[in-house]
């Protein structure tokens, strides 16, 4: 087996410096400005953040280590069809900007789920925040686990050590520095993420001769694929699944997810928030496209000697770290820069999750319970102290969950599956609230639970087929490094190829592409919610005419205001007519009396 190259002291120094800078930013914001003593400063930075850092934070809280490792492995293993998902980001950005964002900005709430209480009731708020709570904890575990597994297998860094280090560092600076520390470290970590991807592409271009040659090698290996237009939902990635499924995932993350909503509220007004979101789109697309291309760059080195079939690694998620060690280990500090980028990708996402989990737990659970038990409001000082403890505690829980994340499979698909299974139904709940006047609390709760149950069963039911992978070879491998492992890995690979999402021996729902989970969850929630709400309104008097128009999408709100204004005008006219009729009758009566008097005279 090929010898695994390990990091040198210069690499560890680079990683240590990166971690120290992240911790230092947290300490700085703990002892500067308002010192994170108020809820407004701790959770929404007193609405004082600039557009650029918020735009960058919106990107990196979504693009984690899962993205760097998983997307590059996706393009290496399955081809470039996944790139099409970037179209959904462009479609989704204006929907979030001019649909969801104005509603949350007018609400000015720390927890996005406070909206659901105002629109439907406290039961809906509790249900949605709990579902989100579980989703983000699971995702945090995957985000911590993904880089640790790859780094252990390819660089010699202990999986346990990297999980604990990233988790503790993140918990520390997130808990003491609040959202300001999280946002500023996001900017620093974004630079490292971009540096990691560009280093991989640059090294590959230097080795092959040009970017064009990387493309040509990928084309010869049948990695360049943009022609999958099948309407069959069991095909893993098609234009339909990536655009529609990608849009569902994007809207569930950017439109109604506490992490992104909380970031969007840290600027001074709605216009600044919309600018930040528009600015995040090209940054997101550039990072996504370059990460996709980095998968082709890695393929240019291993196209004649696949390290998975050779037995050097056990998962495609380990390709990028392996590539770095194979090509850069002779340059002191450069592998360390890359590993720092991977760590940063994990830190930025985990820190976002910890701060948001603390906000949701405090606002949706602890404050209402305290209010109910004591009859008083929790003071701002106590709230902030509790929030810091919660953020650190969730960091520790994420570390524990990271050791369980290996049960979820490939990191990219695992991450998107978690967002799809939970995000789709939650998107349906918020859309029912903001986009319809007829939705009721009972209809929303029943439909959300139904959708969650159905999609969860689809996503995790067993047995399920493995997706078909593109061909790889070991013809160009060093025979001495390959013989010991080639028999086992090739036999495993053949088995892997024989199973396809189109294999009819598997239950149909288990063969549906994971990209459809979010749209299906959304549609089930929305349609079932409307039906049940319509039936319940036959027996329960409608209260929606009393709702604040600001709880609806701007276009719906304008229609509601217009209708109410017309109703008021009609009422005024009717009242005026009644008054006139009374006056007119009174005048006629008076005239008749006067005529009788004249006759008598």
Q: What's this, in brief?
A:
Helices cover 74% and strands 0% of the residues. By secondary structure, it is an all-alpha fold.
What is the H level of CATH, i.e. the homologous superfamily of the largest domain?
A: Sodium/glucose cotransporter
Q: What is the CATH third-level topology name of the largest domain?
A: Sodium/glucose cotransporter
The assembly state of the depicted protein chains is single chain
Please, how many domains?
2
The parts where pLDDT drops under 50 for at least 5 residues are: 483-501
Q: In angstroms, what separates the terminal alpha carbons?
A: 131 Å
> How many beta-strand elements?
0
CATH architecture of the largest domain: Up-down Bundle
Order of helices and strands: HHHHHHHHHHHHHHHHHHHHHH
SS content category: mainly alpha
Radius of gyration: 29 Å
Shape: globular
Q: Can you walk through the features of this model?
A:
This protein folds into two domains: 12-436 and 447-536, Sodium/glucose cotransporter (Up-down Bundle); 557-594. Helices cover 74% and strands 0% of the residues. The protein has helices spanning 9-30, 39-44, 51-60, 65-78, 85-107, 114-119, 122-155, 159-208, 211-220, 239-255, 258-264, 270-302, 307-310, 319-328, 334-374, 380-402, 411-435, 441-460, 479-498, 508-511, 517-536, 554-600. Helix 4 (65-78) packs across helix 15, helix 7 crosses helix 8 (159-208) and helix 14 (319-328) runs antiparallel to helix 15. It is globular, with a radius of gyration of 29 Å. The model is unreliable at 483-501 (pLDDT under 50).
């Amino acid at each position: 087996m090929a010898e695994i190259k390990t990091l040198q002291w210069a690499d560890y120094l680079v990683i240590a410096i990166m971690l120290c800078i992240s911790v230092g930013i947290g300490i700085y914001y703990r002892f500067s400005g308002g010192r994170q003593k108020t809820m407004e400063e701790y959770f929404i930075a007193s609405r004082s953040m600039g557009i650029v850092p918020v735009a960058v934070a919106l990107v990196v809280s979504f693009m984690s280590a899962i993205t760097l490792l998983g997307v590059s492995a996706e393009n290496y293993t399955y081809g470039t069809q996944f790139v099409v998902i970037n179209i959904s980001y462009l479609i989704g950005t204006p929907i979030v900007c001019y649909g969801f964002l104005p509603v949350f900005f007018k609400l000015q709430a720390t927890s996005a789920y406070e909206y659901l209480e105002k629109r439907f009731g406290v039961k809906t708020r509790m249900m949605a925040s709990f579902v989100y709570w579980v989703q983000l904890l699971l995702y945090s575990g995957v985000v911590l686990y993904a880089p640790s597994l790859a780094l252990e297998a390819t660089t010699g860094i202990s999986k346990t050590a990297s999980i604990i280090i990233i988790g503790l560092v993140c918990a520390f600076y997130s808990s003491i520095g609040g959202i300001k520390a999280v946002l500023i470290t996001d900017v620093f970590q974004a630079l490292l993420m971009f540096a990691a991807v560009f280093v991989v592409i640059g090294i590959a271009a230097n080795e092959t001769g040009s970017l064009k040659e990387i493309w040509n090698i990928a084309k010869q290996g049948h990695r360049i694929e943009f022609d999958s237009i099948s309407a069959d939902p069991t095909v893993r990635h098609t234009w339909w699944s990536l655009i529609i499924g990608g849009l569902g995932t994007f809207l569930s993350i950017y439109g109604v997810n506490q992490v992104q909503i909380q970031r969007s509220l840290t600027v001074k007004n709605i216009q600044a928030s919309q600018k930040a979101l528009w600015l995040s789109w090209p940054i997101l697309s550039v990072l996504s496209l370059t990460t996709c291309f980095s998968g082709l760059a890695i393929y240019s080195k291993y196209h004649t000697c696949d390290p998975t079939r050779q037995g050097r690694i056990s998962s495609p998620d380990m390709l990028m770290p392996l590539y770095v060690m194979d090509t850069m280990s002779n340059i002191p500090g450069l592998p360390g820069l890359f590993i720092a980028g991977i760590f940063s990708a994990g830190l930025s996402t985990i820190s976002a999750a910890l701060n948001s989990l603390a906000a949701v737990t405090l606002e949706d659970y602890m404050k209402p319970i305290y209010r109910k038990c004591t009859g008083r409001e929790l003071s701002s000082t106590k709230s902030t102290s509790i929030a810091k403890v919660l953020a650190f505690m969730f960091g520790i829980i994420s570390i524990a969950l990271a050791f369980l994340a290996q049960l979820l499979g490939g990191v990219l698909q695992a991450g998107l599956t978690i967002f799809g299974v939970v995000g789709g139904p939650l998107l349906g709940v918020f859309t029912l609230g903001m986009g319809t006047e007829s939705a009721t609390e009972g209809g929303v709760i029943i439909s959300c639970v139904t959708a969650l149950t159905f999609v969860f069963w689809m996503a995790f039911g067993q047995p399920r087929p493995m997706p078909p992978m593109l061909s790889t070879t070991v013809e160009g491998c060093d025979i001495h490094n390959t013989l010991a492992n080639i028999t086992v890995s090739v036999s495993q690979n053949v088995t892997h190829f024989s199973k396809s999402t189109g294999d009819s021996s598997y239950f149909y729902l288990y063969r549906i592409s994971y990209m459809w989970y979010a749209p299906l969850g959304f549609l089930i929630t929305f349609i079932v919610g409307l039906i049940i709400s319509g039936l319940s309104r036959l027996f329960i008097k409608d209260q929606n005419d009393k709702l604040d128009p600001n709880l609806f999408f701007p276009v719906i709100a304008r229609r509601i205001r217009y209708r109410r204004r017309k109703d008021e005008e009609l009422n005024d006219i009717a009242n005026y007519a009644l008054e006139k009729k009374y006056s007119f009758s009174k005048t006629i009566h008076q005239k008749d009396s006067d005529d009788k008097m004249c006759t008598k005279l």
